[in-house]
Amino acid sequence: MGSSQQGSTLSTNVSGYVDGSSAGREISHIDALPVYVKELIAGGAAGAFAKTAVAPLERTKILLQTRTLGFHSLGVYQSLKKLLKHEGLAGFYKGNGASVLRIVPYAALHFMTYEQYRCWIMNNYSALGTGPVIDLLAGSAAGGTAVLFTYPLDLARTKLAYQVAETRGSLGNGGRNFHAQPLYNGIRNVLESVYREGGTRALYRGIGPTLVGILPYAGLKFYIYEELKRHVPEEHQSSILMRLSCGALAGLSGQTFTYPLDVVRRQMQVEHLQPSTSGGARYRNTWEGLAIIIRDQGWRQLFAGLSINYMKIVPSVAIGFTAYDTMKSWLHIPPRQKSRSVSAA
């Protein structure tokens, strides 16, 4: 009785795939999507999961980078405690909506354009070979492309995260925090306010150091990741732990080299919100920003928040890679074509 019932169920499932019933149609709809669309979906979902998981650390990092009143002299743990005390759990996720809204298209574009650039370079510049140099170039180009399309959302995320609510009292030593700074109530409000103040150019303020930083960072991340994987035995190439370890090392290396540029970018984004000081000149470009920060704040400020960035990069990479691999499996994305020296990313 049980076996006949199982047989009947099996025949129904098989016939469903044959005659185009709901199960068959569901799979055909997924398979009918172009590969680049599947990569966009998988990359966007992975980015959203990873960014939300490390949102408290990201908020604290921005407060440290921008020397927010009441936070610039604190460490990571004390900053998290102060945020929890004054803003509650919601304070950990202030600006995360803008962050996720930015990271979904950013991660989606980054993964998809990386694959496209990589194929284009291999097809048109075969003299470069098929090794990790291709990943360096494709990763850099993909990072720049993704930044150009999503930068205004990153600007909105930074401005929202930079705000510290004063509804729960003083944050500084006897003084209240920036009561003069505008309080934005959402992503749209930030974008509208910034556009009214300075037009499209204001929406892209700080993009110089962003591009200067993302081009080597994205390229190095892919380069180091693929180069590390080349030294992994073939039987371990599909190991999730191996992917996470290589990705974490690649992310840490890239961050260390390019982090000062990220600090300049953050300070340029929130510059007009900070109280003016004697000698506080506006940063006209990336290099001037670096010079002024070193002169007025010391070279250590160029690495403010780096320790927390290390703390968040490992779980971020872990969750991002795991989610991306899972989504690729669900969406039936075929493995990226292997080169002679590089395995699929």
UniProtKB/TrEMBL annotation:
InterPro entries per UniProt: MCP, MCP_dom_sf, MCP_transmembrane
Q: Which GO terms describe its cellular component?
A: membrane
Q: Where are the Solcar repeats?
A: 34-120, 130-231, 238-330
Keyword Repeat listed? The answer is: yes
Where does the protein end up? Answer: Membrane
Q: Which PROSITE patterns match?
A: SOLCAR
Tell me the Gene Ontology biological-process terms attached to this UniProt entry. transmembrane transport
Give membrane topology per the record: Multi-pass membrane protein
Q: Which UniProt keywords apply?
A: Membrane, Repeat, Transmembrane, Transport
Q: Does the keyword Disulfide bond apply?
A: no
Homology family = Belongs to the mitochondrial carrier (TC 2.A.29) family.
Q: What protein is this chain from?
A: Mitochondrial carrier protein
- This protein's species is Escallonia herrerae
Upper lineage is: Eukaryota, Viridiplantae, Streptophyta, Embryophyta, Tracheophyta
